[in-house]
Each structure stands twice: as C-alpha cells, then as structure tokens.
Amino acid sequence: MEVDFQAQIERDLGAGPSHELLSALNIIGWDCKNPIHLSRCDFGLSNDNYKLSTIGKDPLFLKVFGPLAGNINSDELHLQKCNFGPEVIKRFDWGRLEEWLAGRTMQREDCENIEVLSAFAAQLAHMHKETMRNHNDLNFTNILICEEEKVEIQFLDFEYVGKLDPPSDIANFFCEWMYDCASQRWFEPDVNQFPTQNQVRFFIEQYLQVSDPNSAGVNSFIDEVRLRIPKVHKYWINWAKEGFSGQDNYEKYARNRQSLLDVNLL
Known about the structure:
Elements: E1 2-4, H1 5-13, H2 15-27, E2 37-40, E3 48-53, E4 60-64, H3 74-81, E5 88-91, E6 95-99, E7 104-105, H4 114-131, E8 133-134, E9 143-147, E10 151-155, E11 162-163, H5 166-176, H6 197-208, H7 216-243, H8 248-260
Antiparallel strand pairs: 1-2, 2-3, 3-4, 4-6, 5-6, 7-9, 8-11, 9-10
Helix pairs in contact: 1-2, 4-6, 5-7, 6-7, 7-8
C-alpha cells in the first residue's frame, strides 16, 4: 500500500524524523521535489518496515525501530562490517535507512526444497565461520531468497546477534518452521510443521558439509540442537513478556510458547 511519504512519516514519527530522513535522501542524491513512494512491507513483527522508491533511483529500505530495537548492538555492527546483510546508508536514533536487496522472504513451503535448504545451510555456516557470531532470530521474514541463476540466501535484521553457538541458531530456525508470520494468528505454533527427523538430519549434514548422514558428528550436533530448543523457547517467552507486556497477541504468543516447553519436538 502506497501512502503520501512525508505525511506518513510525520504522522508515525513526528516532524523531526521526517526532516532527518529527507535530509539523508538529499545527501545521497535523491531529488525530494519528485514524488517519493513509501510502501509498507508485510513482514516484521516488532519493527515497521518500508520500501522507498522514486524516479531514477534504486529503491531503499527503511526500518523504523520498535520498542526493543536500536543502534546499540556492537555484534550487529560487527556482522555488517563483515559484509553480511544490506549496506546501511544512514543510522537514526529511531531507525535505519538501508539498501534494498532483491529477492523474496522465505516461506514455509521453501522448507520442502532441498536446494533452498542447502543454500541456507551453506550461508549460515559461512556467516558463523566469518563472523564468529549467531544471528539469533532466523525466522522466515529475516531470510531473503534470490532465485536467478542459482538460489542465493541473505540474512536480514541483525538486532539480536550475539556470541557464536551454532546449535542454538539452528534450533531457533527449526522452531520458526511452526510459525506463520504472515498470518493474523502468527502467535499460534503448528507443531506438525516442525521439521521431520530426515529434514533435521539433511540440514545439519549440509551445514557441517559431511557426506555420511550417520557420522558421529551429525548425531552429536543433533543432540546439541535438541538441548537448545527449550532455551530458545524461554528466550522468546521472555522477549514477549518483557517487551510487549499488556499486548494481547504477544501475551498469547508467550503462553503458547510456554506450552511447547513440555513438547518433545526433536
């Protein structure tokens, strides 16, 4: 949905942020006398995300921080310096202007595509090796798929980046298979969508780059992922309770996630 650019920004953020954004666009060569289109993206739960476009310029991505985000995570800066994710054009106290990356966000049905899963596992292993950091929020809206000559994966939203613990990142990703972020009932998990044993094993084989599915390394890694699943649940339960207290959908999310603590998913 396209809306009037300046009116939307001023209504949501006030005149100050609107002025800051226009100034930043002018500096990078946008002629703000031309119409600028602000289209809200249909992904992201705790931030507001927009696509900016105008005549003769590549589009840009605008992230408006929610209550739990901001420019305070040094690990996020580390990943960006290692050239992971979109280039950050301008940082504001209230948000961030970034390059727009071509592609589409991952969907649950992509989990059935071994080419996508292989590319994802390889990119995750590459990020872990190069940055020595976890992403920690690998839900489908933070995974960008580009399908031109071959499948390529990029990760988005590094707000929760932290110390390296690969089984935790993968446990989080597997848990996200149960959630439909595009649904109005995004807070309800479907345990039937959790990956099968074969899918778990395949993904970890691809991540570890081993040819023997019965190797001790694969089995040991699966055990570590299994141990991380309750910790992942507790992290997001606390995230919802502490960051969105009193908001009905987030309270439902926390309660539903609490119920998963007693479910043997893997």
